[in-house]
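Record passed on here:
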Amino acid sequence: TMMKHPLSQFLYCPECGSSHFEIHNEKSKKCADCGFVYYFNPSSATVALILNDNNELLVCRRAKEPAKGTLDLPGGFIDMNETGEEGVAREVLEETNLKVKEATYLFSLPNIYIYSGFPVHTLDMFFRCTVENTEHFSARDDVSDSFFVPLSKIDPEEFGLDSIRQGLKKYLSI
C-alpha cells in the first residue's frame, strides 16, 4: 500500500478555508486560492532512561493504546515553550512520581506514533535521567505498572513501540 500524504487528513486551507488545499511536495500542502503553504513538521517527544544503583532500568507497562500492555519507557510529548529537559522531567514525574535531578541528552530517532487513529510524526529524544530517589516510584497517568529490570535482562522485543525498541538497541550497544 502506498503511504498516504501526511497531510491527507487536512482537506481545507487553515488560512482561508478553501477546499483547493493541494499537495505541494512530500511535506507540505498549498492553497490554490490564497497561496498559503502549510509545512508538516514532526512533534517533539522524549524518552527517559533511568538507572538505579544496581544498573537496573526503570520500565513501564503501557495502560493505553497504542501497544497497550507492552513494555515502555517513561516519556511523552513536549509542551509548547518547554525544553526537552523540562519535558522529560515533567513526563517522568507524571508517570512515575520520580523527580529528575539531571537529564542528559543522548540521541534522537524519528517515529510515527498512532494517536486516536491519526499518524503523528515525532522526533523522539532519548535522555539519561538521574532522579532524586529511585526507591519511591509509582505507576500513574498512562502507565499501569513500573519496575526495574537489570540492563542485561532487557529485551527490546518486549517493548511495543518501534522507536523505543530501536532506541534500546542503540543504547544497549553504546
Q: What stands out?
A: The longest strand covers residues 100-115. Residues 84-96 form the longest helix (13 residues). Residues 102 and 147 are 20 Å apart (CA to CA). Helices lie at 84-96, 162-173.
